[in-house]
Specification:
Two copies of one chain form a homodimer.
Chain A: E1 3-7, H1 16-29, E2 34-38, H2 44-47, H3 59-64, E3 75-76, E4 82-85, H4 94-97, H5 107-116, E5 121-125, H6 132-140, E6 143-149, H7 152-170, E7 177-186, H8 191-204, E8 208-214, H9 217-221, H10 229-232, H11 237-252
Parallel strand pairs in A: 1-5, 1-6, 2-4, 2-5, 6-7, 7-8
Antiparallel strand pairs in A: 3-4
Helix pairs in contact in A: 1-11, 5-6
The structure holds adenosine-5'-triphosphate (2 copies) and magnesium ion (2 copies).
Chain lengths: 253, 253
Amino acid sequence: VGVVIAIANQKGGVGKTTTAINLAAAFAQRGRRVLLVDMDPQGNSSISYLDPRSMNCSTYEMLTDGQNDPSDYVYQTPVQGLDIIPARINLAKLEAKLVGDFDAPFRLKDRLEILQERYEFVLIDTPPTLGLITVNALVAATYVLIPIQSSFYALEGTDDLLETIEKVKARPNPNLRVLGVVVTLHDRRTTLAREVHEHIKTVFGAKTFETVITKSVRLEEAPAYREAIFTFAPNSSGAKEYAKLCEEVMSRV
Amino acid sequence: VGVVIAIANQKGGVGKTTTAINLAAAFAQRGRRVLLVDMDPQGNSSISYLDPRSMNCSTYEMLTDGQNDPSDYVYQTPVQGLDIIPARINLAKLEAKLVGDFDAPFRLKDRLEILQERYEFVLIDTPPTLGLITVNALVAATYVLIPIQSSFYALEGTDDLLETIEKVKARPNPNLRVLGVVVTLHDRRTTLAREVHEHIKTVFGAKTFETVITKSVRLEEAPAYREAIFTFAPNSSGAKEYAKLCEEVMSRV
Ligand SMILES: Nc1ncnc2c1ncn2[C@@H]1O[C@H](COP(=O)(O)OP(=O)(O)OP(=O)(O)O)[C@@H](O)[C@H]1O
Ligand SMILES: Nc1ncnc2c1ncn2[C@@H]1O[C@H](COP(=O)(O)OP(=O)(O)OP(=O)(O)O)[C@@H](O)[C@H]1O
Ligand SMILES: [Mg+2]
Ligand SMILES: [Mg+2]
């Protein structure tokens, strides 16, 4: 049964999507069968691999359509071995639609159960909030991977995220574990970034990945060409660092 | 009566907070009375000017406490002429607390009415979502200022934001207008940034501010010292660009 990893941090713009799309491609490059589930209504992971016009159905329909076969919502990507369930803006309506529904936090978990048999890794990209959508991802996941940008605001928000993770662990998903924390958008030249990085290592200890993802314009460009970093710019720092992160993740699961 | 400007974009990490704290300080430097309202539960604007331990009450209490004098929630900042109503994580509970309340979208507008008499500018920082919190800011505002990062994902999300603004204009706040779009975190050296900038100008036309905010590490560092960019690094590109943006905003209101 596949390992399910949610990529979450309610701070905006810290590299959740960039980590989801490149880590998923790194697993696929190693011959694993990977499913990327986009649970962000902005659909940034989805447009990194698919033409928005080609998406007839999406995560929202899968979570609200009752009992269709969940594989009806799966699309292939240009990356061999990597499939995706895309998100559209209608996913923003999920919370309002499921208000008062006792099993609301379990919708994604239930729908993924069948798909987990067919994939070795399932990665879930989440929006920058701690609402029902992110809770669904945390309930469905075995692990949560936390990207943290090495910047001043980054550290203030992590308490709230850890608190939410503890609440999810207490009742809906006792198996949830923090896979680790990865420092992203890192600029080795600045003192602030180095200081925050040190602080992250102090706060998270052994949970902090050795691999640090530094700022690289190639990572920003690749999604515009619907390519993973490994084919778009194979010798870039982004490609090497996400390959290294992939090795570290595989050693922990 | 003060001009109320909401700073909004549901894409995360595009410089909403950085624009709110520096534009507010720029108005104050010109001798105007300015109030910064932090409506983001992460409280990034708040910690840019206040010690989190000194905040006994916050936006959440102001919006839910019934009829206390709203100025009980106002704090002075280190910047002369700039006051702030800080946010704490409890603001994330606002949506659940106001479910079913007919005047839920008007809470902030009602509570700001008295304060607008005392300030010439009221700036509202918002979270990276389009839920009830951001709707409250859009209903209370006369203008909305949209920071957009010159990156691939930036353009995909603007339709949803403009749609939300139109919905707010249709009923709860017919006076709401788009003040303008400012390009942020811009890196003149990359082709992608230049291309996206051109595209933003095509999409938004005259609404696009002339001023572009380029990437500058000084802007990232200033909040760690609880200083506005104008005193922290007066000769930096960030200080000059936000001063220029302030001039442009004042010419439009
Ligand atoms: N290591 C990096 N080097 C350079 N640019 C990066 C890097 N990681 C992410 N980016 C860019 O920074 C921006 C924010 O990253 P991304 O969209 O992945 O963050 P996010 O956490 O998913 O944002 P949101 O909170 O909106 O979902 C994007 O424009 C992305 O291309
Ligand atoms: N012009 C700039 N140059 C360099 N760094 C910047 C600039 N503008 C913002 N930043 C940095 O980029 C990160 C994101 O900016 P900021 O937090 O202001 O965005 P935001 O839209 O408020 O994020 P959120 O969606 O989480 O509220 C922060 O670490 C900030 O310090
Ligand atoms: Mg994202
Ligand atoms: Mg912010």
